[in-house]
Amino acid sequence: MFKKLQKQVGEVLEFSSDILDNGPRITIMGRNEIIVEYFQEVIQFSDEEIILKTPVGRLVIRGKKFVLTTVLQTEIHIKGNLLQLSFEEGV
Question: How far apart are the first and last CA of the chain?
Fold first, then answer.
């Protein structure tokens, strides 16, 4: 019942399905800026690869000259040259 209520409230408030399903929200602006919300943990960080633990598996971001501009508990902002973004099963 809670899931049904959560979905109905989300539709009324216009929440996207990724928030309701506890998945990450990924915003990419061109090839130079990425915002990831609702991740759980930073597993690895270098200037060429970032691996984040998410509720739906590991999110792997590859590129060059990565710089973290904002790091919050469940939100991270990355600037650099994005080359690849992928999900891996498991955590």
Answer: 29
